[in-house]
Amino acid sequence: MLKYIVRRLILTVPILLGLSILVFLFVRALPGGPAIALLGERATQESVEQIEEELGLDRPLPVQYLSYLRNILSGDLGSSVSTRRPIVDELKQRFPATFELAAMAMLFAVAAGIPLGYVAAKRYQGVLDNVSLVASLIGISFPVFFLALLMKYVFAVKLGWLPTVGRIDVTRSLEHPTGFYLLDAIIAGDGEAFVDVLEHLIMPAIALGTIPLAIVARITRAAVLDVLGEDYVRTAKAKGLDPSVVDRRHVLRNAMLPVVTVIGLQTGLLLTGAVLTETVFSFPGLGSWILNAIRFRDYAVIQGGILFFAGMFIVVNLLVDISYAFLNPRIRYR
Amino acid sequence: MSTLPDSLPDGARELPSMPARLQVEDLHVEFSTRRGPVPVLSGVSLDLRPRERVALVGESGSGKSVTALAIMGLLSRNGWVSGGSVTYAGHDLTLLPEKEYRKVRGREIALIFQDPTGSLDPLRTVGSQVAEAIVTATGHRKSDLRDQVVQALHQMQIPDPERRAGQYPHELSGGMNQRVMIAIALAGGPGILIADEPTTALDATTAAGIMDLLGTLAHDRDMSVLLITHDLGVVADFAERVELMYAGRIVERGPVNDIFYRPRHPYTIGLLGSVPDVSGQRVVKAIRGSIPSLTALPTGCVFHPRCDRMQERHTCREQAPDLALISGSDQRVACHFSDEADREHAAGPRQELAEPETSRSADTDPATHPLVEVDDISVVFHLKQGLFRSGGQVTAVDRVSFDIERGETLALVGESGSGKSTTARVVLGLQAPTSGRVVFDGVDLTTGDKRFPKGVRRRVQAVFQDPTSSLDPRMLVLDIVTEPLVVHDLGSPAERRQRAEEMLDLVGLHPEHLERKPAEFSGGQRQRIAIARALIVEPDLIVCDEPVTALDVSVQAQVLLMFERIKAHRNVSLLFIAHDLAVVRQIADRVAVIYLGEIVESGPADEVFTRPRHPYTRALLSAIPVADPRRGRDRDRIILEGSTPSALAPPSGCRFHTRCWKAEDICHTDPPALAPHGPALAACHFPEEGPVHMATPGGGSR
Predict the structure, then answer these.
(1) CA separation (Å) from B269 to A320, B130, B230, B275, B334?
(2) Alpha helices, DSSP H, located in A125-251
(3) Is residue A153, in this structure, part of any structural domain at all?
(4) Alpha helices by DSSP H, B73-203
(5) Rounded distance, CA A133 to CA A117, Å?
(6) CATH of the domain at A318
(7) B252 within 8 A of B196, measured Cβ to Cβ
(8) Which of the four pLDDT bands, split at 50, 70 and 90, describes residue B384?
(9) Over 60: is that where the pLDDT of B366 sits?
(10) Do A237 and A295 sit in the same domain of this protein?
(11) How far apart are CA B496 and CA B490, in angstroms?
(12) Chain A partners of B188 at a C-beta cutoff of 8 Å?
């Protein structure tokens, strides 16, 4: 098992290397460049060239890439052109925000999606099943940013129940030893701050979690229906087991296998899906950061951010594969 | 002896002394479909007395499994009991509230199923599943639960039960899992065990052990067994009484000997005639037509459209017969003219209707080479373990050689995992052999760049086991059947259509079937379509991989007879892959028996079946249930120990030595070579000599 994990981690090296080349080239294929973004469209040719020379962009591409790679390997992802801040520092600060948001969104999707899917399967072709089908379709097809804006308008602007933007009330002072604000609030023993952070998370998490919720619900429903038709469920019933015991011990556990796969894939997508949500709620996470970077052709930020997302995606999927070995005895990694 | 039907009510004459343990009376079950409710059971009655072994026999769709589920109160959501009763210990189970019913399941009546591995939860150890059954049945968890589980597995003759208890279903063989299922079923000490096709999914040698165990357990634990099966051989071996089902009704009932030796219902007679006979002395006869759809049942007697006895008499078409007692016997039959059965018997043995044996032996021209020469082929699969390392290798086929002459049928016989299907794939060119050659009509197919030139491809066609998945559901039959012509660019569209019509006629279908899709056909008809598709390019060789395994007995008989007809009319060779020796006996000219990738015996079919040299062949032959109670119960039974070893680590020396009762030291070390014994070849250090004890067939009429 440990060998397997190590092997999988080693395999991520070529993946990330290839990705770094692709991102490096794509970013440079975008029209415009950091100099124009900084100086505006009417900048003179000379000033543009001067900036490019300063940034080292006048060198041949392979040379640029190699120096970039050398920096990465020494742990330096470069600095933002627009804010001059090191990218590693930005990541340290912004990753916990996006992580908290994604985790809450997934928690919401799983906590609501699995029971919904289970109930729909048990009431197969009943009213509840059909209602959940329609609701899921709406959930999947609803644009995230629109849902976010709608919620913001209703719950923050009209009703005033929830804060509109940010991770925490700007007037609140809270130490941030970890950067995970919920964790920080617990460390500080500050209950009010905890509730405040939670309130800031609710709407973005729901907006971000709606699509995964719908998908998890549908997959759960299909999986439960499949398992209910399995012979071993009939065996369990023939033993004289209570139906609730049959469902708990035999049906749900087996039905969770495909659901876990989907949760893994969706978690990967959540990280990127956070771009829209974070922008609407001015949430200081990775998504809004990268969006800004694209606007300013901030090459280093785009490259660093995308590599980081890719790394996260790989780690999440590795975790899913590992969890599979614990859930399913038919899978043994060696 | 008078054979007038007696209309006395149930139970008045049939063993009045012993009360039934379970009594099903006039049970009706309906299923809801899109077109409204469909009657699946229409008045099924049966009794199960203490310690009695009753077989409920029928083909797929006859309602036998539904009967079992109705008794257990486990009908699926869209099915319900619409009439009748199931009485157990004075209670009508159909009226029991669900909560009470649960106390009956497992404790009073237990159930085992066809697919043992699928019937066990894949995520739990078999031990925990047995434990769950024990706790549910006894209502409390004792501290020595683990010992109880091990003890239960031990009683099912599972070797090394402590270790097995901690394993998962996928780590056990099918036979082991069925033993686990039996342990689960018996955990509550039920008085009745319903076994629904308990051995159908298992290899013959494994199945024999399971039936043996069931018999012992039923006797030791005072259980009644309701055995549900389509296999008349298993019935003849196991049952005391037989209930024969057709289209949701019992059509004949009686003691096992009466049913086999004095069958009265034309369906019973037809079904018995459909069973291939491993002794080769009785030839298969098929029932015409197919099982009616439950949505459009015939009027009157449901069997009348297929009945030879009816002879256009109106009674059969208008009036449903009762299950009436034959006076002076314990036999009941639902036929208006059951008294004619005696006359039919007197008219002569039913063998007379057999097809003429035309091409039993191939017309070989010694001057030319065989059509197919398989020369010393091996197929080695390298297992990947993880991403980089090799995980060892499996020799699926190990130095196999055989020839197929023109017009000859060679049967390759073996159990699951023997490598017989891999061999078929090599001959079809779907799998490259690791070493060795396949020569087709003088052309070496295994060397050179261009393996399998297109001309050869046309001359070798295939028919597979599952006729459902081997036909594209979205294509019309016309397109399916003519596709090989299109591939090989033969004929114009009009000519192709005409050829397709000829082919359908040859396989017993009609031209109008061309415009339909596979879903509209039964399993047997689909297999006919697959055969038509293979025949249309006039191949010299058809490779048939278990072509009748998925079919019902009566349908199997029809398809086998069709194969015989095709063989007689077109000089085509067959490579027939099968595990069922009785089927092979019916169709093969020569037989090769394969065990763990090696051919252990081969020769003319008659020779191999009557004087098998290799102990494995003998064991296989003895494991086949014979559809003849006396002959079956008299025969020498060899029940093999253990299960087939893993091909990953085949035993040293003779691969069969781990299960062989004749094995001596040399067998552990030296692999025996295939050596001639009479007209056959066998690979054994201590070959058997005498003929196998098969007695003479006595089925049907004596």
Answers:
(1) 59, 42, 15, 10, 13
(2) 127-141, 144-151, 181-188, 191-228, 231-238, 243-245
(3) no
(4) 98-104, 126-138, 145-155, 161-165, 174-186
(5) 9
(6) 1.10.3720.10
(7) no
(8) low
(9) no
(10) yes
(11) 8
(12) 239-240
Report the number of distinct structural domains present in chain A.
2
**Which of A239, A318, A334 is the mutation pick for testing B, counting most B CBs within 10 A?**
A239
Q: Cα distance from A224 to chain B (closest Cα, Å)?
A: 14
Asked if A241 lies within 8 A of B136 by C-beta distance, the reply is: yes
Chain B interface mutation, best of A10, A235, A253, highest count of B Cβ atoms under 10 Å: A235
Higher pLDDT, B491 or A273: B491
Size of interface A-B (CB pairs under 8 A): 82
Distance, C-alpha B82 to centroid of its chain: 32
Looking at the DSSP bridge assignments, the partners of residue B33 are B36
Give me B455's structure tokens. Answer: 């001309």
Name chain A contacts of B135, Cβ cutoff 8 Å.
Answer: none
Asked if B184's CB is within 8 angstroms of A239's CB, the reply is yes
Helices (H) and strands (E) in chain A, counts: 14, 0
CA-to-CA dists, residue A14 to A68, A311, B384, B396, angstroms: 16, 12, 21, 36
Is A115 within the bounds of a domain?
yes
Q: Using the predicted structure, report yes or no on whether residue A96 has a pLDDT greater than 90.
A: no
Buried b (16+ CB within 10 A) or exposed e, B4-37: ebeeeeeeeebeeeeebbbbbbebbbbbeeeeee
Contact indicator for A221, A121 with CB cutoff of 8 Å = yes
Question: Tokens for B547?
Answer: 């072509």
> What would the 3-class secondary structure string for B218-232 be?
HHHCCCEEEEEECCH
Query: Is residue B4's pLDDT more than 50?
Result: no
| Co-location of A252 and A132 in the same domain | yes
> Which residue numbers of B have CB closer than 8 Å to A's CBs?
72, 74, 77, 102-107, 110-111, 113, 115, 118-125, 132-133, 136-137, 168, 170, 181, 184-185, 187-188, 385-388
Smallest CA–CA distance, residue A219 to chain B, in Å, is: 19
Based on the fold, state whether residues A217 and A96 are members of the same structural domain.
yes
The Cα diameter of chain A in Å comes to: 85
Is A242 in CB contact (< 8 Å) with chain B? yes
Residues whose CB is less than 8 angstroms from the CB of residue B203 and which lie 6 or more positions away in sequence, other chains included: B174, B175, B415, B416, B579, B644
Domain span including residue A281:
88-144+209-327
Count of helix runs (H) and strand runs (E) in chain B: 23, 25
Residue A201 within a domain: no
Regarding pTM above 0.95, the answer is: no
Best of B93, B104, B121, B129 to substitute, by most chain A Cβ atoms within 10 angstroms, is: B121
Q: Which residue has the higher pLDDT, A312 or B342?
A: A312
Q: Would you tell me how many other CB atoms lie within 10 Å of the CB of residue B73?
A: 20
Please indicate, yes or no, if residue A273 is contained in any of the structural domains.
yes
| Interface ipTM | 0.77
Pull the structure tokens for residue B581: 């020796």
Across the interface, whether the CB atoms of A254 and B119 are under 8 A apart is answered: no
Q: Tell me how far apart the alpha carbons of residues B340 and A77 are, in angstroms, rounded to a whole number.
A: 96
Burial B640-660 (b: 16+ CB within 10 A, else e): beebbbebeebbebbbbbbbb
Tell whether A13 and A60 lie within a shared domain.
yes
pLDDT band at B165 (very low <50, low <70, confident <90, very high): very high
Chain B residue closest in CA terms to A330: B170
Among candidate residues A117, A109, A134, A106, the one with its CA nearest the CA of residue A226: A117
